[in-house]
Amino acid sequence: MRKIRKLYISLLSLMFILMLFGTVTYAWITMSTINNIEGLSLTATTASELEISLDGVNFGNQIDSSVIELYFGNPTLKDVTSRDGIEFRRGGLTEYGVATPNRDYMSFELWFRTTRREHGLYLINNVSPKVMYDTTAKGTYIVSRGRSWESHVDFLNGNDIGNMVYKGDVNFYYASQAVRISVEELKDEENELDIRNIDDLNVFIYDPSEDESRGYGKPYGAHSYFAQRTGVFIELPIEVPNTSYRLSEMDPMNPYQALDNDSLIALLQETNEQTLAGKTYYQGKVRINIWIEGWDADAFDSIISDRIKMQLEFKIANPAS
Q1: Assign residue 38 a region: left if phi > 0, alpha if psi is -120 to 50, beta otherwise?
Q2: pLDDT single digits (tens) 243-294
Q3: How far apart are alpha carbons 1 and 8 in whole angstroms?
Q4: Does the pLDDT of residue 2 top 50, yes or no?
Q5: How far apart are CA 207 and CA 217, in angstroms?
Q6: Which residues, 6+ apart, have CB-to-CB distance to 35 below 8 Å?
Q7: Maximum mean pLDDT: which of 20-24, 67-71, 272-276
């Protein structure tokens, strides 16, 4: 078996180009359009100590777009919302019922394994502010091309009067600002040494815009636009999902030590599998969900037909105390 040398694994070019909200609508609560994902690839850096798999059997450093297409076909996105990052609903939490994975939102399972003694799996290194749609960089990013959009009404797009948008105003808006990612840690039923209970498993919800002021259930942005456009007032949700607006940092003196557990997504478990050299594999399983959050302040007509590019970077380290 080849010698494994590095710690990092990147899902370089977890790039899916999304056609969002294909026809004009007034707010996520009434949206019913299908949004096609035009392309998706998963690529891990070479010679990594952390390996990735879509089936828990075939591990490697790269999952190319042809394999993704084989697994997922042509998945679509619709307007959805989630309170817990596990269950997803269409429209106003109850109006349209349960959302369907890979029809209404993107959902897929991944296995990770390592032979290192550090077993904490983290999503790390948001470099979105440094990346343009036509560029790339090492790290996690969610960016979009952006769209020029003219408002049809006056509405409040921020938390004070200085954020008013007036009828006829033309501005740029970005679908990437309304993206959410959740990572569910799953019990690996194929690993007989994984004897954890469901209460031991982690769920992580992340807003990659890292802008809490424009997060879930705000009275401005999409909510204000909907009310002004339709004349219908809809009550904002009271319960707010437990969402993180940052990713974990590593100790600059020890890259194998996390300083916090904000984006700890899994603890890899010992298995009975070993390398040819006799090193034990530690393995974990997660489900990644990616959606446009309907209660986000930026989820309205302004982002119709924008295109999103995404990349995720994972790392293993010792959890913070």
Answers
A1: alpha
A2: 999 999 999 999 899 999 999 999 999 999 999 999 999 999 999 998 889 8
A3: 19
A4: no
A5: 13
A6: 18, 19, 20, 21, 22, 76, 77, 78, 292
A7: 272-276
Q: Which of 172, 163, 243 is nearest to 211 (CA)?
A: 243
Quick: pLDDT tens for 103-120: 888 898 999 999 999 999
Element (H, E) at 226: helix 222-230
Residue 34's nearest CA partner among 88, 68, 79, 90 is 79
For residues 110 and 183, is the Cβ–Cβ distance under 8 A? no
- pTM flag (> 0.90): no
Structural contact between residues 203 and 182, judged by C-beta atoms closer than 8 angstroms: yes
Please report, as a single letter, which amino acid is at residue 96: Y
Backbone conformation region of residue 71, classed left if phi is above 0, alpha if psi is from -120 to 50, else beta: alpha
Average pLDDT in the 172-179 region? 90
Residue 9 CA, chain-centre distance (Å), reads 17
DSSP assignment of 187-218, as one string? --TT-TT----GGG--EEEE-TT--GGGSBT-
Nearest to 201 by CA among 215, 188, 187: 187
- Distances, alpha carbon 253 to alpha carbons 7, 123, 250, 257, in Å: 15, 19, 9, 9
For residue 211, list its beta bridge partners: none
pLDDT tens-digit series, residues 218-230: 999 999 998 898 8
Q: Tokens at residue 181, please?
A: 């990612």
Name the phi and psi angles at 201, rounded to 5.
-95, 150
